[in-house]
Amino acid sequence: MADSTDILALERRIEQLERSAQRSRWGAIAATAALLAVSAVGASQQPATSGPIAIRDTNGHVRVRIDDTGLLLTDANGTKRLRLGYNTHDQPALNLYDASGTLRLESYLAPKQTAQLVFHDKDANPRQWLGLGDDGTPFVEEMNADGKDLVYLAGTAKPRLRFYDGVNERAVIGMSSDGDGLLRMFDAAGKESVSLEGQTKPFLRLSEREIERIYFGLSSEDSPLVFLNGATGKAIVDIEAQADPYIRLRDGNNAERGYFGVFDNHASGLAIYDATGTQQWSTP
What we know:
Elements: H1 4-44, E1 53-56, E2 62-67, E3 70-74, E4 80-86, E5 92-97, E6 103-109, E7 115-120, E8 126-132, E9 138-143, E10 149-154, E11 160-164, E12 169-175, E13 181-186, E14 192-197, E15 203-208, E16 211-218, E17 224-229, E18 235-240, E19 246-250, E20 256-262, E21 268-273, E22 279-283
Antiparallel strand pairs: 1-2, 2-3, 3-4, 4-5, 5-6, 6-7, 7-8, 8-9, 9-10, 10-11, 11-12, 12-13, 13-14, 14-15, 15-16, 16-17, 17-18, 18-19, 19-20, 20-21, 21-22
């Protein structure tokens, strides 16, 4: 059986709980009333009526400003140095400015939530882009002051690095559609001048205005070969290091004029032909 001391302690504890519960009820009532009041005030006001918020330094200069356009940070001279908000395309953007207030770094989220980072020169011209394309492919792009491409690197499944002179593509390093390594160079008119591919049968091709002039590579039988071609692209000299190696000389009409190597009878020697292909001299 509980004594009187325990009963008194229990009564005091019950009394404390009742007072605590009462305070909680009054707190809940007050909080609800405050919430209703704020909601009522908010509903009675038109949106975006709050004025800008300005934070000043000890000298009274505005250093931080927040308004309906976003967040703006300025230096002691009042020059904008950072802006966080939306750009003219209504994309979330962060801009950084130099001491003269010129835009130097711009970052934003493109429509498909792909990030873009843009570096500007001292004249605010965009010169370098880093980001993700619409398909999520990472890329780097560099441009001249006129906005013409100079360098473009795309990190696709078959990545390529491209170089431009501001007008035409001049070089590309990367992988072919078949996944082979390649190097291509182009003249000022955009015509291929050098092509190097590390495919199953690798080759190096040198061209003039898209006309092949020199070819180093492998034949269909995997034999090393060299072609030296005239201005029309027709072979003048061809060398093949096959089982029966040879050097063949041709004229401008592609007619064979000289042969040095192994003949069909497996004898080695030299043969000379006229313009009609008639043999003029041979040895042995």
